[in-house]
Amino acid sequence: EMHNQLAFEVDRRANKIEIKKAVERIFKVQVDDVRTMNYQGKKKRLGRNEGRRRHWKKAVVTLKPGQKIEFFEGV
Predict the structure, then answer these.
(1) For the chain, how far is it from start to end, CA to CA, in angstroms?
(2) pLDDT at residue 47 is higher than 60
(3) What is d(CA 41, CA 64) in angstroms, rounded to the nearest whole number?
(4) Is-contact 69 6, C-beta < 8 A?
(5) What is the CATH class of 5-67?
(6) Is the per-residue pLDDT at 42 higher than 90?
(7) What angle do CA 60, 63, 64 make, to 5 degrees?
(8) Domain positions in the chain
(9) Beta strand spans in the chain (E)
């Protein structure tokens, strides 16, 4: 928030252009930049059973100067 950036967990198949359009449409703001990171799910064990958490994608969205998302202001 200090650098006008917000992080979202997004669909793993979504690309930067789709993420930018979705944020602009949903929150009615102008997006300057989108950076994405893919995370591998962690291995987890329960006794002898071994499983894995799901893989996920994180998007860091930078808003243009002067833009704010009011939803996050009171948090």
Answers:
(1) 11
(2) yes
(3) 32
(4) yes
(5) alpha beta
(6) yes
(7) 145
(8) 5-67
(9) 5-10, 31-39, 43-46, 49-52, 56-63
Contact call for residues 22 and 11 (beta carbons, < 8 A): no
Which residue type occupies 27?
F
Residue 70 confidence (pLDDT): 77
**pLDDT tens-digit series, residues 49-60:** 999 999 999 999
Task: Report the C-alpha gap between 12 and 57 in whole angstroms.
Answer: 5
How far apart, in whole angstroms, are the C-alpha atoms of residue 43 and residue 55?
A: 11
Would you state the structure tokens that stand for residue 25, as one six-digit string?
């449409």
- What does the alpha-carbon distance between residue 24 and residue 28 come to, in Å, rounded to a whole number? 5
Model pLDDT for residues 17-38, shown as the tens digit of each residue: 999 999 999 999 999 999 999 9
Pairing outcome for strands 49-52 and 31-39: unpaired
Residue 29 structure tokens? 């703001």
